[in-house]
Design a protein that fits this description.
Helix content is about 85%, strand content about 0%. The model has no long low-confidence stretch (mean pLDDT about 85). The chain contains three helices and no strands. Helix 2 runs antiparallel to helix 3. By secondary structure, it is an all-alpha fold. The protein has one domain. It is elongated and about 75 Å long.
Length: about 120
Amino acid sequence: MVLRLKEYEALKYLEERGHTISHDTYYRLRKEVKESTNTRLHLIASEEFSSQHVQRLDTLKTIENELWSCYHSEQNPSKKANILVQISELQELLAAFYDSSRWVLEQSARMKKQKVNN
């Protein structure tokens, strides 16, 4: 929250809450907060993004399997046709996810390499 305030506003805010700090300390702490934000983003990019990508793929595959089950149990021809349209649209989405999997792996490997080098 303090990052969104101007310097004098942030210092006043902190002082009102019993935390008097110097201008130098304010800027040092502000820099540390910004750096920790970048560290968190790198963590998400290197580890969580890959995991989330796989979870999305698994979810889409589960939906596809359920749609096929619905298709096979449905008796109404127009509803069967609608289910086939949904399966077709889902397969386009799955294809895009599989195509992007290579990029996700490359980015994850690059981030892990950077983490090791730092």
